[in-house]
């Protein structure tokens, strides 16, 4: 029985209306708010205020540094883990479960977990102390130790969010018939060559979606940073939160939001272009 | 029990014409096979009869009642799907009982009818199992039992044997035939396998590009194809067609004299087993390219009068690649076709 | 693999497992160890005089209990809303070809390219006017915007995986459209739908930014922890972190079979 035409529309209407109300409308509002001069014709006032802020350059630098360091490491690590899972014949399910546990851990919780490890009298320092490398509790997460604070945040981010990349990649691996790399090996390719020439190109769409997903979320980094370093290390979304919540200046917060969205969109576009595949070259 | 009348049913998908004003009558209790290559519209036609697809024009009647605009549920039919569509979350019993439960039949009635259908298809031992634990052939039986349990006026089957392996298919085919003969259900059966259609059906409707090109008894379709397409599609090996030019109702091919029913450019159609092998100078010349011993017969592939020809020879015949033979088709079993239209000429042979 | 390579391989696997598990173990120590453990130096790597008492004390703080309750309410609402709105859309995408399906799919995918939580910022004003500000329901609305795209795409994959023939068979054997859905499609989709629901719950449970922006007194647990972070003692922070993690770990275990449906397939 073929459907009356209105059925699919009735089915998507609630979701479409909801997303319009809570995605499209606030999106437009954010943009409008960020260009609101507060009664004056100066539509860039919020942006000027944002850019003039002491933390702005720092936040930009820190956010980009974090994304630039974290995302590539996560991709490499997840790729390694996915290949390992591929080779595993026993215990695959349990290992996969363990490796994906952080998927359910919030960024705030992840920050707190790593705080327990890295704080002055934390577990890391205890180990270093017992190895005789430290004399006593030592701070790593202060404004005075920006490098170790940064490393700490990187560790926490890698710990928390590599699982997403892993899942997308493992799913991608499952879509590639084993025969392809077997065929390559039969024709004399070593396993690394087979991986590079067969698996990697076929995995490109998965790599692309993993990178988009992860990068967009990485630009949103905020709670991990807060949990570990307070406002010792400004990041973009953290600044948006501060302007909204502490300074009660919604316009500048909106300007930050628009900035983050533009960066995220730009990153998405770059990935879509750089990792594009012709559909006919995929199985 | 009821017959099916398909009246000038047409179907368009976007701009493409899938069915071109198809008409077919299936008599009460008759088994008709819709046979054709993939994409010929046979499944679309079946789904329109089932009510799973809307028609663009025409009408479908079941038991004289116009069902064209009814939901599938209200058409009084049952169907066996290509992938069986056995519900995986129900036991075999619940699957077979599904249609009866939807009809709100009393409990004892359902129990009795399920048992009977299960006995007919020999799935009684599995009634409490889930389909995932069954083999493909057993699932097939469940699908048929589910359809027969509702004692439908009309049974529709969409390539029900195509997912079975060759041996099982042969076994199921025979069983299906005996079960359906007993049930005397009007059946419309879609298949692309001509041996299945030949073996099962009372009548075969051969479809080509959205049209029924011939609807006849299996033997008629086989020996008197309505067109070169039917001759080529039905039968293995397919019917041979050799080009002949006739004038004055007579033609000559090498050493063979023929009496065609018309003049002009014709095709001499004959089945590979309907020929006599004779010395080269006593029939049309046949050059053997390949000889394949098939056990029950010897299959010869070659050419005659510039056309590819396949001949079925006795298994003991001593013929080898490169041999030249003469062919003498049985004059009673020759099918004459027009070269231009590809259609059979009236007044055969 | 040869013996040496096998050893290396499994050591690598074990190291990566430890990388995930050890930090969780350590925060558990912090959560159960209480004040004494949090400030102890050097740290013990096993539980000493641990008790549930420490965790219970943390939960007895009034703000914490309320916040946890708010989190549960918001997450449950998110779960219900995103499934109620998302599953029909997913079904439409999976079963019907209609004008606008592409546009809808694009909108859903587009939400992925946006840091959605940030969109909570302009909503504050609207929510204050509508009386939704500082309520778990308001938070749930924004979280639904986060979870709905997932729910729609995941359920689309789920429904597409249920052969259409099964539904057609139900129609032929006497079911209406709705009956066929209830009797055949729904039972088959149920485990996957449950996984999608749990996932929506986790998305809401974990979300920090929007929840912090949209609440003042009726904080969710994440928002509460974020605001009191600076002034709370270490062992409370650890207890908070642990309380946040536990449900997530359990949930991920419950939905582990569907992780690929949730992330892998829907990302294609």
UniProtKB/TrEMBL annotation, chain A:
Pfam families given in the database record: BPD_transp_1 (PF00528)
Regions that span the bilayer: 64-84, 96-117, 147-171, 211-230, 250-274
Membrane topology field: Multi-pass membrane protein
Main location: membrane
Residue span(s) of domain ABC transmembrane type-1: 60-271
Cellular compartment(s): Cell membrane
Protein family (similarity comment): Belongs to the binding-protein-dependent transport system permease family.
Protein name from the UniProt record: Sugar ABC transporter permease
Biological source species: Alsobacter ponti
TrEMBL record, chain B:
Molecular function per GO: ATP binding
PROSITE patterns the record matches: ABC_TRANSPORTER_1 (PS00211), ABC_TRANSPORTER_2 (PS50893)
Domain spans labelled ABC transporter: 4-234
Keyword annotations: ATP-binding, Cell membrane, Membrane, Nucleotide-binding, Translocase, Transport
Record's keyword annotation contains Transcription: no
InterPro entries: AAA+_ATPase, ABC_transporter-like_ATP-bd, ABC_transporter-like_CS, ABC_transpr_MalK-like, ABC_transpr_MalK/UgpC-like, Mo/tungstate-bd_C_term_dom, NA-bd_OB-fold, P-loop_NTPase
Pfam families in the record: ABC_tran, TOBE_2
Lineage: superkingdom: Bacteria
Family of this protein: Belongs to the ABC transporter superfamily.
PANTHER family reported for this sequence: MALTODEXTRIN IMPORT ATP-BINDING PROTEIN MSMX, TREHALOSE IMPORT ATP-BINDING PROTEIN SUGC
Protein name per its UniProtKB record: ABC transporter ATP-binding protein
TrEMBL record, chain C:
Superkingdom classification of source: Bacteria
Pfam families cross-referenced by the UniProt entry: BPD_transp_1
Membrane topology: Multi-pass membrane protein
Keywords, comma-separated and alphabetical: Cell membrane, Membrane, Transmembrane, Transmembrane helix, Transport
Main location: membrane
Subcellular localization: Cell membrane
Residue span(s) of domain ABC transmembrane type-1: 68-255
Family annotation (InterPro entries): BP-dep_ABC_trans_perm, MetI-like, MetI-like_sf
Transmembrane intervals: 7-32, 72-94, 106-128, 140-163, 184-205, 234-255
The family this protein is said to belong to: Belongs to the binding-protein-dependent transport system permease family.
Full protein name: Carbohydrate ABC transporter permease
Species this protein is from: Alsobacter ponti
Biological classification of the source: Bacteria, Pseudomonadati, Pseudomonadota, Alphaproteobacteria, Hyphomicrobiales
């Amino acid at each position: 029985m073929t459907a009356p035409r209105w059925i699919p529309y009735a089915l998507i209407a609630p979701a479409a209306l909801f997303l319009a109300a809570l995605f499209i409308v606030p999106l437009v509002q954010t943009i409008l708010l960020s260009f609101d001069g507060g009664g004056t014709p100066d539509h860039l006032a919020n942006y000027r205020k944002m850019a003039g802020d002491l933390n702005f350059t720092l936040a930009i630098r820190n956010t980009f540094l974090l994304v630039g360091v974290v995302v590539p490491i996560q991709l490499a690590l997840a790729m390694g883990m996915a290949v390992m899972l591929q080779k595993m014949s026993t215990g695959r399910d349990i290992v996969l479960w363990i490796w994906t546990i952080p998927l359910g851990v919030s960024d705030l919780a992840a920050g707190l977990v790593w705080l327990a490890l890295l704080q002055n009298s934390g577990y890391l320092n205890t180990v270093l102390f017992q190895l005789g490398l430290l004399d006593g509790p030592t701070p790593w997460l202060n404004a005075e130790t920006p490098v170790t604070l940064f490393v700490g945040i990187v560790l926490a981010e890698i710990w928390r969010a590599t699982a997403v990349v892993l899942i997308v990649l493992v799913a991608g691996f499952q879509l590639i018939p084993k025969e392809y790399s077997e065929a390559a090996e039969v024709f004399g390719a070593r396993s690394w060559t087979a991986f590079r020439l067969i698996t990697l190109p076929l995995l490109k769409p998965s790599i692309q979606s993993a990178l988009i997903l992860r990068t967009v979320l990485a630009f949103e980094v905020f709670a991990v940073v807060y949990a570990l370093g307070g406002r010792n290390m400004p990041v973009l979304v953290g600044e948006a939160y501060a302007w909204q919540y502490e300074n009660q200046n919604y316009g500048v917060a909106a300007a930050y939001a628009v900035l983050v969205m533009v960066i995220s969109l730009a990153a998405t576009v770059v990935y879509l272009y750089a990792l594009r595949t012709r559909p006919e070259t995929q199985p | 029990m009821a017959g099916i009348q398909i009246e000038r049913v047409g179907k368009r998908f976007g701009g493409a014409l899938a069915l071109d004003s198809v008409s077919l009558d299936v008599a009460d209790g008759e088994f008709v096979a819709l046979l054709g290559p993939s994409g010929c519209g046979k499944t679309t036609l079946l789904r329109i009869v089932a009510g799973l697809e809307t028609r663009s024009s025409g009408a479908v009647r079941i038991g004289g009642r116009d069902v064209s605009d009814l939901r599938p549920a209200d058409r009084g039919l049952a169907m066996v799907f290509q992938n069986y569509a056995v519900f995986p979350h129900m036991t075999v019993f619940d699957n077979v009982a599904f249609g009866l439960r939807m009809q709100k039949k009393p409990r004892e009635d359902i129990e009795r009818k399920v048992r009977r259908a299960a006995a007919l298809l020999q799935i009684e031992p599995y009634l409490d199992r889930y389909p995932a634990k069954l083999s493909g052939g057993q699932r097939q039986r469940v699908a048929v039992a589910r359809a027969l349990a509702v004692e439908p006026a009309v049974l529709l089957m969409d390539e029900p044997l195509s997912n079975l392996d060759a041996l099982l298919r042969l076994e199921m085919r025979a069983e299906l035939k005996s079960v359906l003969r007993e049930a005397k259900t009007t059946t419309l059966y879609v298949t692309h396998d001509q041996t299945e259609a030949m073996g099962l059906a009372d009548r075969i409707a051969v479809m080509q590009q959205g049209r029924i090109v011939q609807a006849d008894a299996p033997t008629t379709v086989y020996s008197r194809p309505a067109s070169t397409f039917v001759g080529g599609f039905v039968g293995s090996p397919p019917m041979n067609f050799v080009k002949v030019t006739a004038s004055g109702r007579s033609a000559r091919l090498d050493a063979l004299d023929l009496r065609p029913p018309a003049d002009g450019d014709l095709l001499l159609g004959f089945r590979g087993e309907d020929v006599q092998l004779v010395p080269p100078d006593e029939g049309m010349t046949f050059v053997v390219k390949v000889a394949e011993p098939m056990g029950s017969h010897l299959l010869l592939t070659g050419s005659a009068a510039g056309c590819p020809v396949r001949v079925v020879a006795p298994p003991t015949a001593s013929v080898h690649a490169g041999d030249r033979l003469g062919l003498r088709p049985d004059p009673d079993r020759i099918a004459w076709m027009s070269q231009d239209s590809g259609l059979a000429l009236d007044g055969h042979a | 693999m040869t013996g040496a390579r096998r050893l290396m391989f499994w050591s690598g696997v074990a190291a990566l497992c430890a990388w995930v598990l050890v930090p969780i173990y350590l925060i558990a120590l912090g959560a159960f160890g209480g004040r004494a453990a949090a400030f102890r130096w050097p740290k013990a790597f096993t539980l000493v005089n641990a008790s549930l008492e420490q965790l219970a004390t943390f939960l007895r703080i009034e703000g914490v209990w309320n916040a946890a309750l708010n989190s549960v309410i918001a997450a449950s609402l998110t779960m219900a809303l995103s499934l109620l709105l998302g599953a029909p859309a997913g079904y439409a995408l999976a079963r019907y070809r209609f004008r606008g399906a592409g546009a809808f799919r694009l909108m859903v995918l587009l939400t992925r390219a946006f840091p959605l939580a940030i969109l909570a910022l302009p909503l504050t004003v609207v929510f204050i006017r509508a009386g939704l500000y500082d309520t778990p329901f308001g938070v749930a609305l924004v979280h639904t915007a986060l979870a709905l795209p997932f729910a729609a795409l995941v359920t689309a994959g789920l429904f597409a995986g249920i052969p259409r023939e099964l539904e057609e068979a139900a129609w032929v054997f006497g079911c209406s459209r709705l009956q066929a859905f209830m009797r055949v499609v729904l039972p088959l989709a149920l485990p996957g739908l449950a996984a999608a629901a749990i996932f929506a719950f986790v998305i809401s449970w974990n979300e920090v930014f929007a929840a912090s922006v949209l609440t003042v007194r009726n904080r969710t647990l994440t928002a509460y922890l974020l605001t009191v972070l600076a002034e709370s003692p270490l062992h409370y922070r650890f207890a908070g972190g642990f309380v946040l993690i536990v449900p997530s770990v359990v949930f991920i275990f419950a939905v582990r079979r569907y992780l690929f449906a949730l992330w892998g397939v829907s990302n294609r």
